């Protein structure tokens, strides 16, 4: 199988274009890229520096100390884990790719979902099915639709065997409630599915009423959990990801498969980064406090942008975790049509060209291209420099900061004009 | 296509086993792992530290400054290169994997060759053909055998379209002479093959008479060159690799495909590592001097171990670059049989169990399992600690250093007993 690639992963591509426009001096509000635009926590930098002299190849699975820390991290989240169940990698992305190569069968995805799951399935020669999400949350397929899709796929002779869930979700910024997760797990048991649970936004739940239940707590023998430090600690540029495998012998078999793929595709996470991982996953109090402050800030901005969308007449699931909102302008279709906006492509283009507001069009996340939906990463609104970003993080009322108010006003005015 | 993985890449796996034995206090001479066991050059560490605060995602292709430096690196090697032709990645391994996914057709490999080429081809759903190397060098298929293999494969309806060459070679430590490279290029033209030229050992040619010719100098439109800093600068643990694509529109199409695969599989090289790359590929005089000293040391040890093998009666291509030797004990088959050594598996086991000498068995590199061949990485003999390693690097006569003499004596005695 040889895959023809036509384009770069759309989020990274758009980020590049936005940076080019910025470099030309254009004023943009960039919410198109899923990055927590915050400075690195100083102790993380210290640990990277402390590990800087470690130049030799490490174990494919990761350093013992780092795997020990990661096992503690999961164990503290009601997922008892031994270091043997852990692999570290340069990001969770390569781990998800390896899982796609190792696990048999086709892949069931929420629709919309993160724009890398489906291309990875295709790279591994798999079919990927997009299944609508429930009305109240994203990150999981709607359970009835999931059952129907499995049945339909099997009638065609296909073999759906993997379901991917994102808890909390990218792109909707919502967290599937425990009951929905239990339903997905029950279906996985009945239909013999493996669950890949992407929990990279887990520590960024900002709705204090929201409860997170991992499928690994319900059907641990059929769940691989992936996570990383890119989102919770805003170090996407350092590329540190982890996977947690079931402790069963079948789980260890999957781990061995991923380790084998790792050894042929990327070898190992860079050693200096493993020093960072050993510190970060041990979660000392100062780091927990920092992550908590970060989550609070994400919540403030996500709710503010959510409010703008809903006030303008769009529907939008209320964000509970991560740093995204995913509005739907269907109720305003007639109004948008007056501006030539009739689908997600023209919606994205209009916002960028008319108002300098960059968002990621819904169809790039597997959603219906005729729908009027986009993903906005509200984590890009903390400021242009570290000073503004630290101010946002430390402010008791970040929305009152002038630079943030300016972003929000600009978004509010643009959305008001769009919907007029 | 779903691949069943049975084992970890054998070199990394063996390294892990050797480390476990060492941790138990056993005295080992480990030549099983292709690492330059040397400290990092201090300025490299300085640049990693200087880049440590760079926490945001970078461009998929690599930072402008790093790509500029890499383009200079190749241009200084008679491969005129613009930054557009360059992609950086966490190692050359993921770049080779992406090339396997992007380039159409089956893969033609030298036999023996680096143990990752064939598994990557299989991961990409390709067939891999191992073609014997010439008598005088490794890293390239013997030209007549290459022609025959292409013909035979096509008769079976297969589609060999890619040939991989390694200049200088892993595992034989030899450099294919320019005439042989030209022959391979001529075949590539006739048969419409794409050439992947792995030049990661390029700066470690230690035979001053040896001349390197890259296929990219001969048929530039059909060659992708890969390289990295793991070998020449002994920073395998930092994972810094590069690829250079042809400047033609077809070449840019391949580059776009690799960029697309990169964006879905690994995103980007960690930003702090891009600061290292920008410095290292600019090759300031102090770094060139360091690499030259390293290459001299590699040559000293490779020739010493080569001498031991040949003196014992084995045949062995004389090493010219990199840090490997690849002896063949066929002339001593009857002697080895007295010790129960009858194939490459039992040869490797015997050396490890009887003498504590770890080498990589030839069949793990695609070679005939009945042959009595192995790869020895002589770069592992510089010492157990940085002090010994710096002493090795700075010594006018490194072979005279007590710790190195001890390694060599132990190898010499073991080989003598094996061949008795």
Task: Name the descriptors.
homodimer; alpha/beta; Aspartate Aminotransferase, domain 2; 7-stranded mixed beta sheet; 3-stranded antiparallel beta sheet
Verbal overview:
The structure is a homodimer of 420-residue chains. In chain A, the strands form 3 sheets. In chain A, strands 2-8-7-6-5-3-4 form a 7-stranded mixed β-sheet, sandwiched between helices. In chain A, strands 9-12-11 form a 3-stranded antiparallel β-sheet. In chain A, strands 1-10 form a two-stranded parallel ribbon. Helices cover 43% and strands 12% of the residues of chain A. Chain A is globular, with a radius of gyration of 21 Å. Chain A has 2 domains: 10-40 and 286-419, Alpha-Beta Complex (Aspartate Aminotransferase, domain 1); 54-284, Aspartate Aminotransferase, domain 2. The first copy, chain A, is of the alpha/beta class. At the A-B interface, helix 1, helix 2, helix 4, helix 5 and helix 9 of A face helix 1, helix 2, helix 4, helix 5 and helix 9 of B.
Mass-distribution shape of chain A: globular
Annotated CATH topology of the largest domain in chain A: Aspartate Aminotransferase, domain 2
Strand order of the largest sheet of chain A: 2-8-7-6-5-3-4
**What is the CATH top level name of the largest domain in chain A?**
Alpha Beta
Biggest sheet overview of chain A: 7 strands, mixed
What oligomeric state do these chains adopt?
Answer: homodimer
CATH superfamily of the largest domain in chain A: Type I PLP-dependent aspartate aminotransferase-like (Major domain)
Q: Note the beta-strand portion of chain A.
A: 5-15%
In percent, how helical is the residue content of chain A? 40-55%
Helix and strand composition category of chain A = alpha/beta
GO molecular function (chains A, B): L-aspartate:2-oxoglutarate aminotransferase activity
EC number (chains A, B): 2.6.1.-
Organism (chains A, B): Nocardiopsis terrae
Domain Aminotransferase class I/classII large (chains A, B): 28-376
